Each structure stands twice: as C-alpha cells, then as structure tokens.
Amino acid sequence: MTAGTPVHLLRDLPAQPSRVWSALTGTDHLSLWFTPTRRTPDGVYELTFHEDDGEYTKRFVIGACSRGKDRALRSFHGRLEDPGYPDSTVSLRLWPHGSGTRLELTHHDPPPSLAEGYSTGWAEYLDALAQHLDR
Q1: pLDDT tens profile 86-102
Q2: Where are the domains of the chain?
Q3: CB atoms < 10 A from the CB of 84, how many?
Q4: Is the pLDDT assigned to residue 70 strictly greater than 70?
Q5: Nearest Cα residue to 62 out of 42, 85, 79
Q6: 73 pLDDT exceeds 90?
Q7: Sequence-ordered strand ranges (E) for 1-53
Q8: 3-state SS, one letter per residue, for 68-107
Q9: Are 107 and 121 a contacting pair, CB within 8 Å?
C-alpha cells in the first residue's frame, strides 16, 4: 500500500444496528472483542494493545457521531493517535441490511509503513466483532 491509500472494508454482521452500535461504542463491549479499552472523562477512547514486544496505547478521539432520523443509519469518525506515527482518521458507517447490519470501515491515510498491518488487523477485528455478535 502507498501513502494516501485508505483501508476500506465492508462486513455483514448478524445483529441489528443498535446492538452493533453498542459493541462499537461501549467500552465494556469493546474490551470483549477488540482490545482493553477505557474512555477518559473528555470522551477519548484509550486502546491498550499487547504485542510480543510489550504494551502500547493508542487514542481514538471522536470527531463526529450521527444517527439517521429513523436511527437506522449510524456513523462516526475520529482521529486515531498512534504514538510515533502521524495521526490518521477512521470512519465507520452502519445500516440495516437483510436481517442484520452492514458495516463500512474506512481508515483514511494510514501511515504507509503500517497500512498493510492495519488492513490485516481491521479484517481480523471485524471477524472478532462478528463472532462476538453471534453469541
């Protein structure tokens, strides 16, 4: 992947949009399927990752959050702060699809040296989200 190449994924999930929304925004839910997460008093999500070479924390700062009039279409985007790398933007949209929800994730301008890892990682995390919702 080259600079400026976004990571873009679509997933069909086995739950209604309100349940998917809770799994994406609630720290208790995020900690079950994503990574240990806490929300600071000013609303910033702190995401703790454990790798072979240690532990590190990324921050996700919500820039905007919206719901459609019928509360079906929901979206948010924000700034991902990854220590030692330029900030990037992640956006998610979800809407009813069949008996579940379609989720669209776009990671805009990931650091070029991390883009392939983000692509693989996001796919794995969305698979984990689908398994979490299927319980």
Answers
A1: 999 999 999 999 999 99
A2: 7-133
A3: 6
A4: no
A5: 79
A6: no
A7: 7-13, 37-39, 45-51
A8: CCCCCCEEEEEEEECCCCCCEEEEEEEEEECCEEEEEEEE
A9: no
Amino acid at 75: S
Question: What's the CA gap between 51 and 119, in Å, rounded?
Answer: 17
On whether the CB atoms of residues 76 and 91 are closer than 8 A, the answer is yes
User: Which amino acid would we find at residue 102?
Assistant: R
What architecture (CATH level 2) is domain 7-133? 2-Layer Sandwich (3.30)
Longest dimension (CA), the chain: 46
Which two three-digit tokens encode residue 132? Answer: 């979490």
Please give the order of strands across the beta sheet that includes 74-81.
7-13, 100-108, 88-97, 74-81, 54-67, 45-51, 37-39
Mean pLDDT across the chain, nearest whole number? 92
| Interval 17-54: pLDDT, tens | 989 999 999 999 999 999 999 999 999 999 999 988 89
Whole-prediction pTM:
0.90
